[in-house]
C-alpha cells in the first residue's frame, strides 16, 4: 500500500478530518489528521486491516504537542504512522482504546510523560511514576536537578 492508496481509501470517508497523507520511509505512509475526528480515523484505519496498534507516543514541541500512533497490518505487512497536533494549553484527544485495546498502557505512558490526556480512557492513572507525581518528565519545561558534586572516597591498602 502506498500513501496515495491510503488517501484514496480514506479521503472520502474522513473528509476535512484528514489533513494529508505523505510518504514515510518504511511505512505505508504518514497520515496526518485533525484531533476532533480521531475516533473516526482510528476506525477507518482499523477497517483497512491495520488491526494491531504497536505504539502511541507524544512529542512536546513547546508551542504544541504531537501525538503519534503506529499500526500494523498483517495482510499488507506494513506499518502506518498516524499523527495529530494538539495545543500545549489544551493537550487532549479521544482515546484509541475502543478501536485498539492495546492503546491502554501506551496512552497512560504518554499522559504521564508528555502530559497529553486521552478522553474516555478506561483507566488513565499512573503507570511509571508514583501516584500523585505532578511532573511530566518528557516535557521540555521539565527541569532536571542541578548537577551535584559527589565526594569520591578512595581506599588505601
Characterize this entry briefly.
The chain is an alpha/beta fold and 157 residues long. The chain has helices at residues 3-14, 38-47, 103-114; strands at 18-22, 30-33, 52-60, 64-73, 78-87, 92-94, 117-119.
Question: What's the SSE blueprint?
Answer:
Blueprint: H1 3-14, E1 18-22, E2 30-33, H2 38-47, E3 52-60, E4 64-73, E5 78-87, E6 92-94, H3 103-114, E7 117-119
Parallel strand pairs: 2-5, 6-7
Antiparallel strand pairs: 1-2, 3-4, 4-5
Radius of gyration computed on alpha carbons: 19 Å
CATH homologous group name: NADH:ubiquinone oxidoreductase Nqo5 subunit
The fraction of residues in strands falls at 25-35%
What gap, in angstroms, lies between the N and C termini? 68 Å
The CATH topology: Beta Polymerase, domain 2
**Which shape, going by the Cα principal axes?**
elongated
The H-and-E topology, N to C, reads as: HEEHEEEEHE
**Total strand count, please?**
7
CATH class: Alpha Beta
- What structural class results from the helix and strand content? alpha/beta
| Physical arrangement of strands within the biggest beta sheet | 1-2-5-4-3
Chain-averaged pLDDT: 90
**Number of distinct helices:** 3
For the largest beta-sheet, the strand count, sense and barrel status come to: 5 strands, mixed
In terms of per-residue confidence, which ranges show pLDDT below 50 for 5 or more consecutive residues? none
Helical fraction: 10-25%
Compute the number of structural domains: 1
CATH architecture descriptor text: 2-Layer Sandwich
Amino acid at each position: 500500500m502506498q500513501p496515495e492508496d491510503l488517501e484514496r481509501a480514506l479521503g472520502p470517508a474522513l473528509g476535512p478530518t484528514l489533513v494529508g497523507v505523505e510518504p514515510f520511509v518504511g511505512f505505508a505512509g504518514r497520515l496526518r489528521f485533525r484531533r476532533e475526528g480521531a475516533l473516526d480515523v482510528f476506525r477507518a484505519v482499523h477497517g483497512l486491516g491495520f488491526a494491531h496498534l504497536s505504539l502511541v507516543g507524544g512529542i512536546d514541541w513547546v508551542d504544541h504537542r504531537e501525538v503519534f500512533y503506529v499500526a500494523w497490518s498483517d495482510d499488507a505487512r506494513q506499518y502506518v504512522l498516524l499523527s495529530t497536533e494538539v495545543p500545549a494549553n489544551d493537550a487532549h484527544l479521544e482515546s484509541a482504546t475502543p478501536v485498539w485495546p492495546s492503546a491502554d498502557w501506551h496512552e497512560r505512558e504518554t499522559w504521564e510523560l508528555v502530559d497529553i490526556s486521552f478522553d474516555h480512557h478506561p483507566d488513565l492513572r499512573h503507570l511509571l511514576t508514583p501516584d500523585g507525581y505532578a511532573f511530566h518528565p518528557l516535557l521540555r519545561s521539565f527541569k532536571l536537578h542541578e548537577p551535584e558534586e559527589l565526594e569520591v572516597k578512595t581506599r588505601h591498602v
